[in-house]
Amino acid sequence: MGRLTGGDPSLLRRINSAVVLHALRATDAATLTEITRVTGLSRPTVEGVVEGLIEAGYVVEKAPDESVVRRQGRPARRFRFRAEAGHLLGLDIGSHRVAALLADLDGRVLGAVAKDVDESASADERLERLRTAVAELLRRAGVARDSLRAVGVASPGVVEADGTVRLCAALPEWTGLRLGERLSRSFKCPVLVENDANAAAVAEHWKGAATESDDVVFVLAGLSPGAGSLIGGRLHRGYGGAAGEIGALHLLGREVTPETLLSTTDEPLHPLDEQAVAEVFAQAKKGDQRARAAVERFIQRLVHDVAALALALDPELVVVGGWATGLDGVLEPLRRELARYCLRPPKVTLSLLGEAAVATGALRLALDHVEEQLFAVEGTVTARR
Amino acid sequence: MGRLTGGDPSLLRRINSAVVLHALRATDAATLTEITRVTGLSRPTVEGVVEGLIEAGYVVEKAPDESVVRRQGRPARRFRFRAEAGHLLGLDIGSHRVAALLADLDGRVLGAVAKDVDESASADERLERLRTAVAELLRRAGVARDSLRAVGVASPGVVEADGTVRLCAALPEWTGLRLGERLSRSFKCPVLVENDANAAAVAEHWKGAATESDDVVFVLAGLSPGAGSLIGGRLHRGYGGAAGEIGALHLLGREVTPETLLSTTDEPLHPLDEQAVAEVFAQAKKGDQRARAAVERFIQRLVHDVAALALALDPELVVVGGWATGLDGVLEPLRRELARYCLRPPKVTLSLLGEAAVATGALRLALDHVEEQLFAVEGTVTARR
Fold first, then answer.
1. Signed CA dihedral, A248, A250, A256, A257: sign only
2. What start and end residues bound the annotated signal peptide (chains A, B) (predicted)?
3. Residues spanned by the domain of A313
């Protein structure tokens, strides 16, 4: 990071503020001398900035250890970042479950609540269920609603930049829903809406199976498979937010629906819900031949979807989540088939976060937003490419 | 663009030099006063920089119009960028053809040469053919070899960052070929190797069918279909340079080879070369039923490949090039099927550059390299995201 001179003084103040917060956040506590050394700012600048941050509530003086004071006299004042100065929510809206995560400004998770919801629930019912979960979570953690700084929300379907669900086959009344706007009524802070598979990709990269890779495809295997991709560590949403919506891919040239794919009889599986599918998986585990054949077909479809993604994007790593994480032996055929079809086969691994992936990703997106506000040093000197 | 102060003085000189070149390149010719105004640099700085650029050969004083001199007396000195100060090559290595484009530093094409080459030619023979084409091109244009500033080369297959072909099924002896190194022996300037479909995507974005879009998938329909993608205007190569290598996709779940796909008899098409395929297309145009069925199968496979790319990447625009550009009625089924399978179907159009797309893209990559050297203002003040 370079140093800016001249230009807008309020911009400069904001940058210096971000630089100091950044430094404080990376450490337990620091003296003014230490901050001056780490940031390269002048002592008076650091003093002014720290004073401003204390007023804003983001920094607090740390009380010295009394035993140290007794032995060595009063040490230099130390300051720390107040991660408790604000809070974040990560929300996951699924077909049979809504979930909420609460964290502080360091992204440390303070609590979680999940609620079942009927797959046929209306949009109003589903949102109400989510509000109930949030209220319960805040109450349990003793966190006031106006302490929230950002809320991340993950939903199935194609999500537009303004938080509207452009298209969603998985949830009733969801297509066209102004999800961001609807949820904004419950919060005073920004509400950020993201596709569920995208959120899960972000989560696995943050603290799951993909922390070591910046080029990742996360496949959310389920009723309607979806995928989220990181390219160079950043989410690839696509031109219209529909990247990775590969649900229709298996239909190409083969008129196979999930209902027939997973059926163990000659009739389509009905209702096709996660419980019915879990039952098929369980039977297959017990050795039922028809169930094993159905699971085999499911895996073949997954292989096809993942191969298409891998060929198009050439990721370093594919993380498989959703239903497939409950399947024994899904990795082996995936690796074998990708090695057959890809000129450069990616590594394949299972999700580490499991059911928590989507809400965790939503939380990370809320944290990203707050970090941009608090710590982003716009106007930093960077190379052109 | 902001202004840097302090720091490395040679960096500052280089930046000022780039800023002045940038300004001169955007205009026909400019006076020192005009350059001073446009760049915001001081008059002495501009004078020093222009003097240095004249010495380096990149700038020349433009002789005043004698009629103006007669009428109004001698005007202020005007300077122009010398696009002829260096030259660029764009090379296309195909299975039955090698081609070369020559351009000046403005990217203006000064000449082109193409040579047929046998599909079964060895790597040495193919490279020799390319060298012959380049020598002929330079001789015809009267351009000295040491005037070349960069050479872009496009090749089928997965190309590594160091210019080695990691894998290529289309050309004999091509897998493992250190293509960049081999060609570097013929040139003193940098040689940049890129995948052919990637190069074509860059070309259509530069001066073809995709000048209006930054999120583009270019599909090179041929024996082994490949694709190149631009995301936000930049080439997406993938983690290992294999993004878009969808040649194997149609094999998934359907053991259909191109030989049987395009056969008009019960026997596989042999030899499967472009001539044989062109013959099938011509028969189909004349109304031959079996040829029409074969072309129909070819289009279906193309639809499947394009759909997979569109679902994975969600581009704004798909440009179809290669064989398919010779096919009447390939657009209509593509648009219809993509509308069926994509949640957000992309626009679909045919390549505008046709056979020239790959070499034109290689040329653009050479130009990009030179522009980075001459005009890139590293260390410019830019927003963080």
1. negative
2. none
3. 210-352
DSSP A178: B
Question: Taking the CB of residue B273, how many other CB atoms lie within 10 A of it?
Answer: 15
Question: Would you call B242 and A344 a contact, using CB atoms and an 8 Å cutoff?
Answer: yes
Q: What is the dihedral of CA A154, A157, A161, A164, to 10 degrees?
A: -90
pLDDT at A46 over 80: yes
| Cβ count within 10 A of residue A26 | 10
Spell out which residues of chain B touch residue A383, defining contact as CB-CB under 8 Å: 378-379
User: Tell me: the pLDDT tens digits for A195-246?
Assistant: 999 999 999 999 999 999 999 999 998 766 789 999 999 999 999 888 988 7
Structural contact between residues B361 and B200, judged by C-beta atoms closer than 8 angstroms: yes
Interchain CB distance below 8 Å, A313 and B308: no
CB contact under 8 A, B4 and A245: no
| Residues in chain B with pLDDT values less than 70 | 1-9, 223-224, 248-266, 268-274, 324-328, 376-385
ipTM, interface predicted TM-score of the complex:
0.79
DSSP of B223-251: SS-EEEEEETTEEE--TTS-TT-GGGGGG
How many Å separate Cα A36 from the centre of its chain? Answer: 34
B343 and A313 within 8 Å at the Cβ level: the answer is: no
Residues B131 and B94 in one domain: yes
pLDDT tens digit sequence for B235-259: 999 998 889 887 766 555 444 565 6
Measured between beta carbons, which residues in chain B are less than 8 angstroms from residue A336?
none
Residue A344: closest C-alpha in chain B: B242
pLDDT of residue B295: 81
Using DSSP bridges, classify how beta strands A234-236 and A226-231 pair: parallel, antiparallel or unpaired. Answer: antiparallel
Subunit contact B307:A378, Cβ cutoff 8 A = no
Residue in the block written with tokens 């609807």: A182
CB contacts of B227 in chain A (<8 Å) are: 312
Question: Distance from CA of residue B274 to its chain's centroid?
Answer: 22
Summarised one tens digit per residue, pLDDT across range B198-221 is 999 999 999 999 999 999 999 998
Q: Are residues B165 and B95 in the same domain?
A: yes
- Tell me which chain A residues have a C-beta less than 8 angstroms from the C-beta of B381: 4, 379-381
First to last CA, chain B: 15
pLDDT at position B214, please? 96
Span A253-286, pLDDT tens digits: 444 565 665 566 677 666 666 677 778 888 888 9
Q: Which residues of B touch A248 (CB under 8 A)?
A: 307, 311, 340-343
The reply to whether B153 and B248 lie within a common domain is: no
Residue B349 in contact with residue B144, Cβ under 8 Å? no
Task: For residue B13, tell me if it sits in a domain.
Answer: yes
- A43 in a structural domain: yes
For A123-171, what is each residue's pLDDT tens digit? 999 999 999 999 999 999 999 999 999 999 999 999 999 999 998 888 9
Task: Show which of B49, B81, B113 is a domain's final residue.
Answer: B81
Do residues A261 and A301 make contact, with C-beta atoms less than 8 angstroms apart?
yes
Residue A294, C-beta contacts closer than 8 angstroms, at least 6 positions apart: A261, A262, A263, A264, A280, A284
Domain with B179 in it: what CATH number? 3.30.420.40
> How many domains does one find in chain B?
3
What span, in angstroms and rounded, lies between the C-alpha atoms of B358 and B220?
A: 10
Do A110 and A177 fall within a single domain? Answer: yes
Say what the pLDDT of residue B302 is: 83
Given a contact cutoff of 8 angstroms between Cβ atoms, the answer to whether B347 and B196 are in contact is no
HSE toward the beta carbon, residue A157, CA cutoff 13 A: 27
Query: How many Cβ atoms are within 10 Å of B278's Cβ, its own excluded?
Result: 12
